[in-house]
Write a structure and sequence with these properties.
It is built from 1 helix and 23 strands. It is mainly β.
């Protein structure tokens, strides 16, 4: 079949049909190819391969309108999936790659960078429920520095790993509590300071979201506990100073004064403080 610039039709043994231009026996130039399964491509061909600008309609509702190279979406293009998702942006070798916007059928929207079909690099994800994450991504997950704003008013500003808060970060809850410190796999873990909306403050160590290890808890009423914690409760050796002056120094178990310890009433603590400077 010679290339004379005219449009020709060719039927293949499997039932596929091509109507368009040729270069010798190769599909080359503008043409329309219809597969037996209903898929239709209309656009550019180069040396027998889908290359250039064109529209692929799979027949199930999915459509790609954009650039192609060697049969794969490559360059700028818009893909509308059968379920209503729409991606507008760059492609490389058939995958979302580079800058692009993804709008899901459920109204979630991601505007940012992609690599090999995954969110990768900086991007902003706006959830349909009002939540917004702005920051870094890696292989489709929140990873690196980023800020998450929940629709209820809660905010996390810090580091992420595999979709979870991990490393240093500040979390402000919807009710006004603020935690500043280390995180691991989405939980407070390591050194951190928690300030509750009622005025309580804890400065110490955490494990799996609970106070665990040494820490100082300052209650809003003036009481102060300094010592060890286990599973969110005073446990081990510790000192409790009540706002009325009473002090206990000794052992704690599961939040209770159990074991060896010394309790000094408030009036006696006050007296001892007055005479301490003259004691030799």
């Amino acid at each position: 079949m010679e290339d004379d610039g005219s449009v020709k039709e060719k039927s293949f043994s499997n039932g596929d049909v091509y109507i368009g231009k040729f270069k010798g026996e190769l599909l080359h130039g503008m043409g329309k190819y219809t597969w037996t399964n209903g898929t239709i491509y209309e656009g550019d061909w180069v040396d027998g391969k889908v290359t250039g600008k064109g529209i692929m309609n799979w027949g199930n509702g999915a459509i790609f309108d954009g650039c192609w190279s060697n049969g794969l979406s490559h360059g700028y293009g818009v893909y509308r999936s059968a379920n209503g998702n729409v991606y507008t942006g760059n492609w490389e070798k058939g995958e979302r790659h580079g800058k692009g916007i993804m709008k899901w059928a459920n109204d979630d929207v991601f505007d940012g960078y992609w690599s090999n079909g995954h969110k990768h690099g900086y991007g902003v994800y706006r959830f349909a429920n009002g939540d917004v994450y702005a920051g870094n991504w890696e292989k489709g997950e929140k990873d690196g520095k980023g800020i998450m704003n929940w629709g209820n008013g809660a905010i996390f500003d810090g580091y992420w790993s595999n979709g979870l808060s991990h490393g240093y970060g500040v979390y402000r809850s919807a009710n006004g509590n603020v935690y500043t410190g280390n995180w691991e796999k989405g939980e407070r873990d390591g050194k951190g300071i928690m300030k509750w909306a009622n005025g309580d403050v804890f400065d110490g160590y955490w494990s799996n979201g609970q106070k665990h290890g040494y820490g100082v808890y300052r209650f809003a009423n003036g009481d102060v506990y300094t010592g060890n914690w286990k599973n969110n409760k005073m446990d081990g050796r510790g000192i409790m100073n009540w706002s009325n002056g009473t002090m206990y120094e000794g052992d704690w178990v599961d939040g209770q004064m159990i074991g060896n310890g010394l309790m000094i009433p408030g009036f006696l603590c006050t007296f001892l403080k007055t005479i301490r400077p003259i004691i030799i």
